[in-house]
Amino acid sequence: MQSWRRKSLWLALLASWLLVLLGLFPLLRLAVPTSPRAGAPQGWPRWLDAELLQSFAKPGELLEDGPRPPQALRGGSCNWGACFDTSKCRGGGLKVFVYPAAGPVSETRRKILASVEGSRYHTLSAAEACLLLLLSPDTSTGECDPVPPQWDGGRNHLVLSLHPAPCPRTFQLGQAMVAEASPTVDTFRPGFDVALPLLPEAHPLRGGVPGQLRQHSPRPGVALLALAEDGGRWHVAGTDFSACPWDGRCEQDRGPKQTHPGATLPNATFCLIPGRGPDVLHFLQALQAGCIPVLLSPRWELPFSEVIDWTKAAIVADERLPLQVLTALQEMPLTRVLALRQQTQFLWDAYFSSVEKVIHTTLEIIQDRIFGPSAHPSLLWNSPPGAILALPTFSPSPSDFPFYHLQQGSRPLGRFSALIWAGALGQPPLKLIQAVAGSEHCAQILVLWSSEKPPPTGWPKTAVPLTVIDGHRKVSDRFFPYSAISTDAILSLDAHSSLSTSEVDFAFVVWQSFPERMVGFLTWSHFWDEARGGWGYTAKRTNEFSMVLTSAAFYHRYYHTLFTHALPKALRTLADEAPTCVDVLMNFLVASVTKLPPIKVPYGMWHQEARPPPLEPGGPGLRQEPQPAAQNCINQMAAGFGHMPLVSSRLRLDPVLFKDPVSVLRKKYRSLEKP
Amino acid sequence: MCASVKYNIRGPALIPRMKTKHRIYYITLFSIVLLGLIATGMFQFWPHSIESSSDWSVQKRSIRDVPVVRLPADSPVPERGDLSCRMHTCFDVYRCGFNPKNKIKVYIYSLKKYVDDAGVPVSSTISQEYNELLTAVADSDYYTEDIARACLFIPSIDLLNQNALRVKETAQALAQLSRWDRGTNHLLFNMLPGGPPDYNTALDVPRDRPRRYFLLSSQMALHPEYREELAALQARHGEAVLVLDKCTNLSEGIPAARKRCHKHQVFDYPQVLQEATFCVVLRGARLGQAVLSDVLRAGCIPVIIADSYILPFSEVLDWKRASVAVPEEKMSDVHGILQSIPQRQIEEMQRQARWFWEAYFQSIKAIALATLQIINDRIYPYAAISYEDWNDPPSVKWGSVSNPLFLPLIPPQSQGFTAIVLTYDRVESLFRVITEVSKVPSLSKLLVVWNNQNKNPPEDSLWPKIRVPLKVVRTAENKLSNRFFPYDEIETEAVLAIDDDIIMLTSDELQFGYEVWREFPDRLVGYPGRLHLWDHEMSKWKYESEWTNEVSMVLTGAAFYHKYFNYLYTYKMPGDIKNWVDAHMNCEDIAMNFLVANVTGKAVIKVTPRKKFKCPECTAIDGLSLDQTHMVERSECINKFASVFGTMPLKVVEHRADPVLYKDDFPEKLKSFPNIGSL
């Protein structure tokens, strides 16, 4: 009995504990106010009969849409397809005619005219032009232009005004496109009009001031914010902005010493620019200063918004959310700040720093519209060196250019074409051909025969194909984009050049790491000559260099296209007249694209002795001291480019074990070390 | 119940004295307990019955049972949509407010059935697609149930098909939504392009079918003017152009939507689209064409001939990469325009068209999420998704590198560099390094990272007197990653990481290293170089420190780099590499090499000739054996990091940087850096 009782008692005990355990939890669950329970249906219900729901349209209905007639031409809301006649541009692409000025020409207008005339699209005949450019009157004194002769309702016209027009237009714009500084978003017709930046009066014609940014990341301790104020001033707010620097709401803490006069550029990470009209000028200032523009609900269209991806360089924020914007700026990740800063500088330098760039960008946009599918891809517009310097006619694929291999995950082709320029010469340069053909990377040898005499017949047998091209006896010919060039890399040579196979091999391997630069053996350096007040350059051996001689250099074949199609004709003529100038010109061109110095690789001194002493007047010299005439060339080039693009370097790239105290057998390029 | 339990606990002591009547008591207690147990068991299963009580609510969750709202005939009609609306004029951003995640909150009105005065429904309650769309929104991060917190409102009134609804009454229905307020912050979905629902997705597979037709038009209801133009095109170009139309003599039972005809030839639609390179999208009744969606899915390149057609998501999608827009006026030239596109570009466009379809149009969910993302990007522009993220297909994203220091510029020399010496307790050697480094002209600051927690750094007076500021940072833990911390004290962009035993570098060598860094500010510029090799026998990577002709890493015992990489190392190092390095007390330099190469896609620059360095590999006191275990460890690091990065980012090069006149036959005293490779 006892045991039964005890057992039952224990059982009861156990059971009651179980009861407590089991019972308490659901009770607790009930006691806690039911916050949304996991798994419970939430939000939009899952309908029981979802399967039975009808489709929004019957299968046939979508396809049976009623037809609609083609669009009629409408003057007010023109678009590219309806109001621009591209048939005129067939064949030669864009040809621009600009109406001559009637009265006195203002400074800005002169700059625009010069820019258009310097463009590769310019034509002097209104008849063959497919775009007629009408400059809006820009002086308050000047009379408003009458309707131009070939007006034709404005068809294929572009009315360009860098500054808001002071006098009302005397005629209807009709079907003309408008390129206007900072147009309001309400009247702007996307894809038809072109939004220009509002330039200051004294904007330079060419070259222009480079971006102010000298380093990638912001200096520590630099102010976070600068706020644009009326009158072209900047109010630097610093990192403490408990009182918001907004809309004059914190007028009281504006210290006079914090305010910069209009001429100086803001020194801050972000530049707040109110969206109202008069502050448009601030936008370019901020861009130049590398101060990330934060546009507060701009009422105007951002310049070149058709092609430039402004989200990479500026922040368009809502002016109604001051605290949120400020917090977002403060907490912006460093990576994004870095990217935005760098993009401001790239854009400034590529499209805005001079009147010429602004005009050329405008024309390039129109050209892109005409090109349609073969226009610049967005990548070419939005990454260095920019669309003016990356010609879409070269290739539709960005990975063919030397600039986009990283973004595209591609590499340059693994071989090179040697292009030997033979001026007045009786004998084929046998030794050179053999040295070059001996390289495992050599794909072909092209001899550009530029002499009056017919080319000799005794060309040596080589492992790689050898082709003789008949040139036009102009020095600039050597940079013509010959269709025979099938590789990305070109080894440009003179018949007099002297190179060894291992020098060629090593230089090519180096070039593959730097496909956008020139890799050369012999160098020149430029300097500012105080005494003469101009630039000079020397072939003397110095501790630095800024040019490599094209008589022995690797570079990308794209530079031939750029040299022939993008350089102003005047500069090429100049190079033809003074042959040593062609080296300077090519170096200027590559430097202005890359903004970087060329690369020097080791060159055996024993070549010097082997070099034939007399130099033909027709060919650029190997190591001759530039003549006074040639010294002048660099200044003419600098004037033509509007600035000095050359950059100096203090290093040379050698093989890893170059002249190291280790067995020569270990070394791959041992013959480079010949004394 | 608790009380009874307590009683029971005390129970056993009393039991012996209890008599029979107590037995009854026990039995009663026992049965009570048992009952309770059963009841609890029942209760446990109750949640299921709660579900069954929500049987009642599920009943309500049938479409047929949604509440009915009667719209009086004279209820207000909202104004017409304001075409001049802009984000900053018509959108009330205050509702979105501050949001640390930069995500908008979206509210969906509950479903109701609207009837007019006569009780006739205004529209069909909800379509399958709209239901799917709202489900996708409700499942996304954007969704909120709290109408007060929402900044974007989606009515559950189905407006997808304008033909199926009564416009005025629907407008009235919209106007009576609780937060309508003239439509501010409301998002309406109308007329989504989408194929007929009986699509067979399995047909989508064949990819590399030969494209027999160059240009194809498959639309049925076209204006006669377009038809004429198309017919003329076909006449001119023959086989290459195929113009299809409605089938007139189809036998019964075959859905007309699935067939197209050319003369008497019958084609299966949409399969026929896969056989064309370009497919025409012409202007229809509503500009947005369902055919665009079919064309994209078939991998055919759409040729848009509709001048004012705003292509879907054109705000973020770059349609130039996936389609060809031809002005309506140029329709007769379309063949010539398309012919001028090179084959490579055509392939690129096909790939792009397919990617757009897959990413943004293939399901209602994809469409809904892309729409919300675009609105989100407008409201939080500083957190917006980039052009590349929207447009680059995954294959490009995978292979591409976007260098964080992409701007080509040479920082000014005047900026100088900050030397960071990591030290533990080798004070004597440290002081020598400090003295040596302080001779470098461009040094602007010296930072000593004191990694020994057990010992205080020497007193101020004992430190060498140098011309630049010297700061000592004490760390909380002896970790190798302390060397790469982005200290606030670093004011220059250039950082020289140097070990406390590197005393063999001359001032010229260090200064030259800095000059080289200025020309390559996005790279690691260092002195001792190392190489990684693929070991074919073991099928894994191997670390190499011999005298090789190639280099792929530099040791950070003496290296210049941009201080941004400190930030990346500390905060953005992938996977568990950072902890792994700290745990193993090794390979922090290999990790840095991986990180920089991965983010920039560029090789390191080794400077100056090789010399015997006092470095981890060389201090092997026990000789060969220790040296070998060290090499094995380093090789393991490379394999480990390569697996974390998912790729081998290191780049092998055959060059190093020397001064222009290095070892040239030139007077030494005229050279800028004569003292190189001399020690």
Task: Please characterize this protein's 3D structure.
The complex is a heterodimer of chains A (675) and B (679). The radius of gyration of chain A is 34 Å and the shape is globular. Chain A is α/β, with parallel strands linked by helices and 675 residues long. Among the domains of chain A are: 80-139 and 147-196, no CATH class; 225-240 and 260-353, no CATH class; 416-603 and 628-641, Spore Coat Polysaccharide Biosynthesis Protein SpsA, Chain A. The N and C termini of chain A lie far apart (116 Å). In chain A, α4 (107-118) packs across α8 and α15 (581-594) runs parallel beside α17. Chain A has helices at residues 2-31, 59-63, 80-83, 107-118, 280-289, 322-330, 334-352, 355-371, 378-382, 405-408, 430-437, 501-513, 558-565, 569-577, 581-594, 606-610, 628-641, and strands at 96-98, 131-135, 157-161, 177-181, 194-196, 223-229, 233-236, 259-260, 268-274, 292-296, 315-317, 416-422, 442-449, 466-470, 489-494, 519-520, 523-529, 534-538, 547-548, 552-556, 599-600, 651-655. In chain B, α19 runs parallel beside α20 (624-645). In chain B, a hairpin with a 4-residue loop joins β17 (529-535) and β18. In chain B, 33% of the residues lie in helices and 14% in strands. Chain B is extended, with a radius of gyration of 37 Å. Chain B has an 8-stranded mixed β-sheet with strand order 14-13-12-15-20-16-21-22, sandwiched between helices. By secondary structure, chain B is of the alpha/beta class. Chains A and B meet through α1, α2, α3, β11 and α6 of A and α1, α2, α6, α8 and β11 of B. Chain A: GO terms for molecular function: glucuronosyl-N-acetylglucosaminyl-proteoglycan 4-alpha-N-acetylglucosaminyltransferase activity. Chain A: Its EC number is 2.4.1.224.
